[in-house]
Amino acid sequence: MRDHECVKLRTGKVIRNMCIMTIVVLIVTATVVWACIFTKNMKNAQKTTPIEVTSTTTTMTEETTTTNTLSTASSTTSVTTTETTSTATKGGITNRRWNETGTAVAGGSRRGDRLDQLNSPCIIQIDSDDDRIMYIVERFNHRVLRWRQGENQGEIIAGGNGKGSRLDQLDHPTDQIVDKSTNSLIICDSENRRVIRWFIQNPTDTQQQIILSNFDCSGLAMDTDGNMYVSDYKKREIKRWKKGETNETTVADGPGLGYQVEGGYLPLYFFVDENHSVYVWDNDNNRVLKWAKDAKDAIVVAGKYDTEDIVTRVSGRHGLFVDRNNNIIYACDLVNHKIIRWLNGSKDGSVIVGRYGQGRQPWQFGMPSTLAFDRQGNLYVADYGNDRIQRFDVIDD
């Protein structure tokens, strides 16, 4: 009996020890698996999880004013810098965020001139009646495409007949606007030094109209009254032609406008809001200038001259966009590969997309040139160096 009891005792101990070892192994295994999953999720989160950008609304209050003088051979423009105070806000469009991982909605595979390819897209515009339709200006394919999201290729609606000066050709176009009243495009045909109207209904015919000639145009805009604005990148000025009139008016000028580089000039882009105010980037002083309707003097509405502020210092040519409801200003930083936002009057901006440096990943840019928004608030960026159009979906909090 004693031997039998000893055997039972030893057997019980073995079973108990095996159970304990099994439990320990399961705990260790679960811990390792959890740690691996956590680490992987953290790495993915760094790439794909949008980073919340805190911002404030800005109340325009004139506290201190300083005046600088910008002069050209033909005119003198004074610039007023207005200090502002800021108050915090909860929710609302000033706290709007976007997924920092973009989706290529046009191009992105390989540079080329096929209808499913892009070559250095410099301008994107979303159709005002249909968010699914995009107009894309391709500088080095010398054409304008109309591309419907969800389709794998676009259609040529201007140019596309090789580089040239015929009426059915373009030479390095830099901008365009859609004129709904005439169902046409107005195109800045840069190297041909002309502004040309291209009818959408019959894009293959030769019934184009030259609106301006012998003009170093680079940027275009049309206000709510149908008045046309054109920038001259060599003279560093923006002119306005009122609808039905032939005489122009200079609405913005100054040596800080435009961007001169070795061997030439880069395009001068600008933005016109619903109140007919003109916004232009002052490259010399890292700031956005605003000329109110018919104003002779500009005011500084965003940015500051600070060579040490690497985060919000903008370099190179870039598109501007001004939110019509909250006067929030957005800009493309072509050289530093990011999109920056300022509240109107704020000196300090914040990066909203493109904080991971240059590259071809969905969360990176290769020289973003212009931006646009659809009616839902989704952000579109012409990724010039990566030959694609990226959409960044808005996040509803």
UniProtKB/TrEMBL annotation:
Q: Is the Ribonucleoprotein keyword given for this protein?
A: no
User: What CDD domains does UniProt report for this protein, alphabetically?
Assistant: NHL
Keyword terms of this UniProt record: Membrane, Repeat, Transmembrane, Transmembrane helix
Family annotation (InterPro entries): 6-blade_b-propeller_TolB-like, NHL_repeat, TRIM-NHL_E3_ligases
Superkingdom per UniProt: Eukaryota
Q: Does the keyword Nuclease apply?
A: no
Record's Pfam families?
NHL
Transmembrane feature ranges: 20-38
Q: What are the Low complexity biased-composition ranges?
A: 56-89
Q: Name one GO biological process term.
A: protein polyubiquitination
**Region Disordered, residue ranges:** 56-94
* NHL repeats (start-end): 364-395
Write out the GO MF terms. ubiquitin protein ligase activity; zinc ion binding
| Protein name as annotated | Uncharacterized protein
- What is the originating organism of this protein? Adineta ricciae
